[in-house]
Amino acid sequence: QVQLVESGGGLVQAGGSLRLSCAASGGTFSTWRMAWFRQAPGKEREFVAAIMRNSDTTYYADSHLGRFTISRDNAKKTLYLQMNSLKPEDTAVYYCAGGIASYTYWGPGTQVTVSS
């Protein structure tokens, strides 16, 4: 049974940094494309960043380009999201997702709150 569990969320002041982690168990992590999504209160879930299975290709939503960095460690079966220069509008529940051709597996999410 595949499980994804996010960690690293919390409360941070604007301009600060956080590093989110997503630990996978079960399945073959190294074969999955992985991504981060987020959902702010009252808004739809939105794409944040994605990384292909060999870390050779990454994608970012335009609003996060230059502030967020997605990475992965296939040996540790862990996905990361380094978030710098955080803004209050980055406040959301952050989810990791993964799968071979689509995002089949999802974690329960971790709350990130950025205070002004």
The overall pLDDT, averaged over residues, is 95
Number of helices: 0
Largest pleated sheet: 7 strands, mixed
Order of helices and strands: EEEEEEEEEEE
pLDDT below 50 for ≥5 consecutive residues: which ranges? none
**Gross geometry:** globular
> How would you classify the helix and strand content by structural class?
mainly beta
Count of β-strands: 11
| N- and C-termini, Cα separation | 40 Å
Helical content band: under 10%
Q: How big a fraction of the residues is strand?
A: over 45%
As a whole number of angstroms, the C-alpha radius of gyration is: 13 Å
Could you write a compact summary of the structure shown?
This protein is mostly beta strands and 116 residues long. It has no helices and 11 strands. The radius of gyration is 13 Å and the shape is globular.
